[in-house]
Every structure is written in C-alpha cells, then in structure tokens.
Amino acid sequence: MAIQFIINLLVSIIWLLVTNSYTLNNFVLGFLLGLVLVYLLHRVMPGRFYLIRVYRIIMLTVTFLTELIKANFNVLKIILKPRIENKPGFFVYETDLEYDWQLVLLSNLITLTPGTVVLGISDDRKKIYIHSIDFSTKEEEVESIKSSLEKVVRKVGEK
C-alpha cells in the first residue's frame, strides 16, 4: 500500500516538472494521472489497490464517530435522570478476528466509547471481557458491537 502511494506521489511530482507549472490544480491533475497509472499496474505491485484500504479506514472512522456520539447521548441520559436506574454489568464478547492488531484496535475502540471498558482479553485471543455502564442484555450488547465496530475493523484488515 505504501509503495503504491509513493509511486502516485512521484508521478504527480514528475508531472509538475514535465509541465513546468507548479500550481495546485496541476498537482491534482498529476495525482489523478498517477492514480490511474497505479490502478492499471496494481496487479503487479504488492498488496491491494491502496484507495480501497483508505476508503475502509475512512468508513471505520465514520462508524466509530457515530458510535461515539450515540454512546455519549446514552451516558448523558443516565447522568441527567434524577434516579439511578442503570444496570451495570460484565459480559464476555466472543470474537473471531484473525490478527492481534485487529483485536487491539477493537478493544481500544470499545474502551474509547463512553459507557464501556475492556477489562481484558483471554489467552486464546477469542474472548474480550467488557464492563458496560448500562447492561440491558448480552445479546443486544454483542450484536451492537458485532454489527458496527467489529465489522469495519475486519474490513480494514481484509486483503
């Protein structure tokens, strides 16, 4: 992925030098020409076409920010109630992520979301132990994580 981006930048810089016009518009044109060239040659270069991974990282960021906003509102609802009616609880989240970095990323995203904290990971790296500030049911919590955060973390790691 990195080599493809570097080649794309080199093509755009060479385009600037060949045209002898050092404007932003000309750089963007050279970058787009480099993008087409890298796309045409991506089968002989290592890795997938790099824009696919960039798109997936952007989707991961958008998904996390969406979950972050929803979790902030949920915690705000708990705080603003005159009586404490939340039911905190622990649960075990079973995952089948392949790589350690995916597991660490998912754990960090869960911990950064207000109202949940990852307490630990099992030795076989298949279970994540989580504490939730408002625990409704295990199925709802697991489905919420699996359908949003784990799904996009898995897609970022696909080749």
Automatic annotation (TrEMBL):
InterPro entries: Cation_antiport_E. One of its GO terms (molecular function) is antiporter activity. It is a multi-pass membrane protein. Keywords: Antiport, Cell membrane, Ion transport, Membrane, Transmembrane, Transmembrane helix, Transport. The keyword Cell membrane applies. Belongs to the CPA3 antiporters (TC 2.A.63) subunit E family. This is Monovalent cation/H+ antiporter subunit E. It comes from Staphylococcus saccharolyticus.
